[in-house]
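Hi everyone,

Forwarding the result from last night's run.
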Amino acid sequence: MPEKRDLVFVVDFGGQYTQLIARRIRELKVYCEIVPYTATWAELRERTPRGLVFSGGPASVYAPGAPRCDPALLAGEVPVLGICYGMQLMAHLLGGKVKRGEKREYGPARLTVIREDALFRGLPREIPVWMSHGDLVEAPPPGFLVAAATSQSPVAAMFDPARKLYGVQFHPEVHHTPQGKEILAHFLYEICGCRGDWTPASFVAEQVEEIRRTVGSARVVGALSGGVDSTVAATLVHRAVGDRLTCIFVDHGLLRKGEKEDLAKTFHGLGIRTVLVDAGARFLEKLQGVTDPEEKRRIIGREFIRVFEEEAARLGEVGFLLQGTLYPDVIESGTQTAAVIKTHHNVGGIPADLKLQLLEPLRWLFKDEVRRVGLELGLPEAIIWRQPFPGPGLAVRVLGEVTREKLEVVREADWIVTEEIRRAGLDREIWQFFAVLLPVRSVGVMGDERTYAHPVVVRAVTSEDAMTADWARLPFEVLARISSRIVNEVPGVNRVLYDITSKPPATIEWE
């Protein structure tokens, strides 16, 4: 019987960097899961974690209704690392003093290591760190020693070696703390005793076994879009159940130019049984007159499921629906500690009366992890590095009502954006690039005549996992070629704009 892998829980208090903590831990080859702050130690203990990490959060620990955790989490059975709010909560619950700081501390700061402990072993006495807090720990709890301070925080790090409780006021998970990954590694390996046994190969082996155990002798129908997520998910399940998987590709009429033909070739090469369904007219009819973006996503999600159920019925008895859902999809669709940003069609758009059981083997992975798993599965790089494309397709890139005519406009504009960025050799550097059609018109002049036509917005962003993103600094000459081609080659467009907004405050997609 193989030894059970290491597990660390990230206890989420609503911090903006919670998912980033999880990513950094996984990058250090330790498997972790995010759990809400309401999780009890009795629940977590059953899974024998090596340690816990308390995330940051927007609240003040002394405020009424502030998030609290089960005190048993701090009883010393496993090591705990508190980050920002997590450290303040640790101090508050164990008898320390937390107060509002005279000055807020946001951005870069210099941390002075006062007393070297396991977290800071081998690091310089002064290191740059990233702060984001208004409260501070004025006095640590009994049994704790102060490990580090900044000019604004007298207790910027603290520890109780007897109970293996550690706290840092700064954020080691962000790249603005250059030694942050080393600090996390010290906690995971030296304090928690982790082995670093979570790799793409181990994930594939575990998931194949889990899929076989879950599915049993049932048949699976897969929602295959051609993107890296659904393709990796399908390949993983195919490895587990073989020909008992049938994938369905729905052409909802909202695809990019040439995509249907390219994807048909891709699916054929994978050796996975695939059914192609032409449902474009059906989706357009359902979207007629709909302008609210959330309603669009819900309609498309429901209709997807209905198509799958109908096709599955033709295949005979099917027990499971496979989806390539990722963790960012789950987070943005709303969790106990995260607000709804936008409903993803494969999460919030799923009907309550779904007749099939969901199978989502990638549900807790980030995009970069999915790509590494895809490489482990032997998928070609053309699939691995395929640009992310939303499940609702071009429907969320036509703002307002979706019509066949508007889809053609945005489809042609999007093709030009793609061609020019690839021609410039920038397609591997940019996370996502596309065109958006706005539901307004502006005055222009073409051929000495007045025009009154639509503006198109070009969006290009850099990102690691879509949780945050920055606008891509495209060369002016590339933007000029894109603009010139769109207004000259796409009827109904007389103006091109470039979106220079990061995420947050914006999202990557416009709807």
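The first helix runs from residue 18 to 27.

Cheers,
N.
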